[in-house]
């Protein structure tokens, strides 16, 4: 009896996690403080759920800012999202085709969605290119101001039908494995 109650409680907690509200689009995420929103091609309506900002934040501040923002936008505000780091070249696949970057992070709540944070820091890019090609990159200069970085974010929300189907499929698989294991142990 105790095991059935525990399993049922775990199922309900998981269902609450899956069905609870969270961000629905990139517009739910705040802009970096004192930043300028990019209106360059590809940073606005051309690509769904994308936004870009020019700011004086470096990688550490940018990644902390968006990881914390994503945490606060989910009902599990006390549980931080999982962090994954990728090579910046991967941004051409998950952000958009002609994406420049010096770092790429993904913050994920499994079965709920993820946000990719791509940063471009000309100083870092400049140092790499000087070593490799003896080439100096330009600084970011927008509307008469110089900026340390450009941050591009893209949000991938989880579809309600897909996440619910996968969640139920996981539980069905767990029960099937349990039943098969129980039969196999009886035959031994």
Which helices and strands occur, and which strands form pairs?
Layout: H1 2-19, E1 36-37, E2 50-55, H2 59-73, E3 82-86, H3 91-94, E4 103-109, E5 113-120, H4 122-133, E6 140-142, E7 145-147, E8 149-157, H5 160-187
Antiparallel strand pairs: 1-2, 2-8, 3-4, 4-5, 5-8, 6-7
Helix pairs in contact: 1-5
Please outline what is shown here:
The protein is built from five helices and eight strands. With about 190 residues, it is an alpha+beta fold. The chain has one domain (about 1-155).
Describe the 3D structure.
By secondary structure, this protein is of the alpha+beta class. It has five helices and eight strands; from the N terminus they run αββαβαββαβββα. Strands 1-2-8-5-4-3 form a six-stranded antiparallel sheet. The longest helix has 28 residues, at 160-187. The radius of gyration is 22 Å and the shape is elongated. The mean pLDDT is 87.
């Amino acid at each position: 009896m105790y095991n059935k109650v525990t399993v049922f409680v775990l199922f309900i907690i998981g269902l609450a996690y899956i069905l609870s509200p969270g961000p629905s689009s990139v517009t739910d995420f705040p802009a970096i403080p004192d930043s300028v929103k990019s209106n360059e091609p590809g940073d606005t309506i051309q690509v769904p759920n994308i936004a870009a900002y020019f700011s004086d934040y470096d990688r550490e501040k940018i990644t902390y800012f968006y990881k914390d923002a994503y945490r606060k936008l989910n009902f599990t505000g006390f549980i931080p999202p999982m962090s994954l780091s990728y090579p910046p070249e991967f941004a051409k696949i998950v952000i958009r085709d002609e994406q420049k970057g010096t770092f790429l992070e993904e913050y994920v709540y499994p079965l709920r969605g993820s946000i990719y944070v791509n940063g471009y820091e000309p100083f870092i890019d400049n140092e790499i290119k000087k070593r490799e090609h003896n080439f100096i990159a330009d600084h970011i200069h927008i509307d008469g101001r110089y900026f340390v970085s450009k941050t591009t974010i893209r949000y991938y929300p989880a579809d309600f039908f897909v996440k619910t189907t996968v969640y139920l499929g996981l539980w069905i698989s767990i029960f099937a494995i349990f039943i098969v294991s129980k039969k196999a142990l009886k035959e031994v």
